[in-house]
Amino acid sequence: ESLTAGMIASTIADIPGASAVLRGGAVTYCDEIKHRVLGVEQETLDRYTAVSHQTAREMASGSLELYQSDIAVSATGYAGPGGGTEDDPAGTFYIGWAHRSADGGVPVVDSVRCHYEGDRSCVRAHAVTEALGRIGLVLNPME
User: How far apart are CA 54 and CA 12, in angstroms?
Assistant: First the structure.
């Protein structure tokens, strides 16, 4: 987690019995920690920035491996009010997810770009909701 700073893991941990499914979480607020802890390639950060599909996917993949979990989710973005770019203004965030394939092969990794107009707290809360929703879709795919 980057812009959510542990809120995703905290929200899951609020649910009784969370210890049966929550293996851990990493707050990787700066690029160096994204690289050192989750294995996000420095080239990815340099070329695409920390707020990108590529970084969100590498964060999720790194978390999947770090925690040896079945599902991992990541969040990176600009909570605002400052920061952002012309293409990704404040309120833009990327949610990445990775999960083990049913046949035990290569993990499935994807991401989504989201934008939410609101104050910092609202953007972060929306990112948590989006991340949890992605976990739900992995667990209960629509046929």
Answer: 25
